[in-house]
Amino acid sequence: MRNLILSLLVFFSSLSAHAHGPTPQKAKEAIAINAPVAKVWGIAKQFGAIADWQPDLKQSTGDGLLQSGGKRTLTFQNGQSLVEELDYYNEQEHEYSYRLKTENPQAFPTSSHTVELKVNAGDTPDSSVVTLKSRFYRGDTGNTPPAELNDEAAVKAMNQFFTHALNGLKSKAEQ
Fold first, then answer.
1. pTM score
2. CB within 8 A of 78, min separation 6: which ones?
3. CA 23 from chain center: how many Å?
4. Which of these, 170, 175, 174, 139, lies nearest to 55 by C-alpha position?
5. Tens digits of per-residue pLDDT, 65-96?
6. N- or C-end of the chain: fewer Cβ atoms within 10 A?
7. Domains of the chain and CATH, by start
């Protein structure tokens, strides 16, 4: 009986060792901005207007809904587009979260992603800290994705998107 139990344990543990497929990836970036929370939030809260401060985007349009279900379409500099949808929006807490609604790995190399944006008070009344964090899967969820759609490409793209977005928001808010 003991040998049977040991054999079953070895068998089931070997199954998990041979599992394939994507694992969730994460990204998190933050920036200090020399502008009060109200000013920074006034810019960042316009879900459909991210192209006003995110230089990777040629255009963004939204349906104007600042609540769960609100949608925006992002058009990247390469002309490719994707759609994102708000999951959560809180005016008082200066935060929202959204997810990829319509994937397009040629626009952005993820097959799914969720992102949280939060504006907090900084060290002084005239400063803020903005944090972006995400959980996502690579653009190709197969066992052997091409280099442009693998985990590394997705992590690099998300971190770069966050860095450009935060630097753009900082530049706009500090004007």
1. 0.87
2. 106, 107
3. 16
4. 170
5. 999 999 999 999 999 999 999 999 999 999 99
6. N
7. 22-173 (3.30.530.20)
